[in-house]
Write a structure and sequence with these properties.
Helix content of chain A: over 70%
Distance between the termini of chain B: 28 Å
Order of helices and strands of chain B: HHHHHEEEEEHHHHHHHHH
Number of helices of chain A: 17
Largest sheet of chain B: 3 strands, antiparallel
Number of strands of chain B: 5
Largest sheet of chain A: 2 strands, antiparallel
Structural class of chain B: alpha+beta
Strand content of chain A: under 5%
Oligomer: heterodimer
Radius of gyration of chain B: 29 Å
Amino acid sequence: MIAFLVRRVLMAVVTIWAVTVLSFLIIQLPPGDYVTSYIAQMSLSGGIVTEADVIALRQQYGLDQPIYIQYIKWMQQVLRGNFGMAMEWGRPVLDVIGDRIWLTMIVSAAAIVLTWGLALPIGIYSAVKQYSFGDYLFTFIGFIGIAIPSFMLALILMYIGFRYFDANIGGLFSPEYLEAPWSLAKVWDMIKHLPLPALVLGLGGTAQMIRIMRANLLDELRKPYVVTARAKGLPETRLILKYPVRAALNPFASTIGYLFPYVVSGSIIVSLVLSLPTVGPLLLKALIAQDMFLAGTIVLMLGVMTVIGTFISDLVLIWIDPRIRLEGR
Amino acid sequence: MADERLPPRGHEISQDAGSLEGAEDFVTTAEEERVSVATQWQLMWWRFRKHKVAMVAAAIIILFYVVVVLADFLAYSDPHASEAKRSLLPPQGIHLFDNGRFSPFVYAIEGKRDMKTFKRVYQVNLDKKIPIKFFAHGFPYKFLGLFPTDVHLIGVEAGEVKTEDAIFLLGTDMLGRDLFSRLMLGTRTSMTIGLVGVTLSLLLGILLGGLSGFYGGAIDNLIQRVIEILRSIPTIPLWMGLAAALPTYWSVTQIYFAITLIISLIGWTELARVVRGRFLSLREEDFVMAAELAGCSQMRIIFRHMVPSFLSHIIAATTLAIPAMIISETSLSFLGLGLRPPAISWGVLLQDAQNVQTLAISPWLMISAIPVIIAILSFNFLGDGLRDAADPYG
């Protein structure tokens, strides 16, 4: 188990490093360096940039030095918590992002919880009652879930809500809480708004999970130990939940590592359609305005958060599956 | 021990004698005979044929690619021609029979501005029928990219350009461009981007997956870790970042290839995984061992013995990878970071349907979502069918 954990931690560290390189790449890609665009931005908004400022800025980011030094300098700033200025906003990047990054994670986590909460019982039901009406129904819904990209589902739901229920189903807060400071009432308001975005985000993953769970459980149900248990007179519910379901859970839990990045990824585009206050709309705006510090930081934060999320799901996996715990001994 | 497996000698002799009696022991039905001599691909085809849904999906996909090839023949009006006088025109119904005779027509639509709301309102003029002609002349294009022509499947009177006397099967967009014609050309872009992207991913996947599976050890470890890292990074933000960095002065074609490249750079991991898995399991097979013992070179073992036996699996995995490519392109273009107008793709078309207000006024703009969903579903079903058929001996 220790070996497994060490391996995972190492993997996470390397992945985070890869994410920083990619984010740096995104910041570097557009033509011109950011001091030139910073100056352009400042003079547009009427600010004055002195020659000394320019030199100081260039030195701070090591723009006169080779690219890897620039990367190291940038990393030093990042580790100190200085992510640079969001040019369009004229404020530090961290201020602009604010709690949007947390809301992104909350929405994604809610989607994962919903995915699990739906896929597990439905998968078990579909396998135990194979070829029943319910099984076919869920398979059908599952295929729809796979075929409709989440943003399209969001669009369709928005349209239905607008057209037939005359309600705007977007957003994460009621209007009165939009600008309000955090309070218990605001949290409760958010929880009430969460299910719909979570469902939109989670449906694709849920569909896949149901298929995996169903297939795994079907394999397990055919094994002799199930017959033995049944022959010994174990109650059916207890029998299924205690043995085959537990064995079938393993591949199910191990895919969660890929599910999380997938959901975070989807949340970006769904947020735009449903106008959720996550980093999605901010990222798009930043990219269109070539506000690269903001964009790069968002990509960096999303990447790091995802790695942490995946790591947590690995811990869950260890907790569920004793085989992994024993393997590393 | 080994001798037991050999047939008794006497039996062999009777067979050698070529008598009909000897053959009787081995009499098989014609059906079984057919199966035992069939090639691997024949077996696969027979098994695939049984998968009805996959067959239907295959037919639909073929239809889609017919549209890809004939896109500008099927479009009846210039997809780029905008006209303010017919902005946001609702879809027209085609009437197939006129007084009991087959002669398809549409009713003319007259537009005027509502002086209260300043919105353009359209009214169907039931007195004026516009006949639809087959093989009519329309905007010029090159058939199959080679032969200049202006013949289209359907159209109105030759040279007819008066705004109201045209057909709009699926209505028009904000700029008054015909949605049906745009959808045809969008299908061409979106369906080919899936293919080009998957080809690039496949090359990367086979190369890296093959290296990983064949050599194993440190190389395998390294490549597997790279794959794990790539898979644990959220893709859409990354794509957005890369796509936004493409210079704005690039031509439509350059952007097209850059986007495909970006999508496939991250999409190859799944294919590499499949290839590696196949390599690992085949390496242990007896026939590979036999080839090795017979002194075949490594290249010959890979390409003559291993590749043919996992080719079918690769085809199945590739088919299953195409929908992801299509979704990626559609998502990026939908955000405005992928293909940009004047390029037309499903994502570009859906961009018009981005907000609810527009949709409430003109719901037909969402029609472009239908081919996307059908294409993705069909590729999924086809891939499922292919995967089931890929191992005909199993």
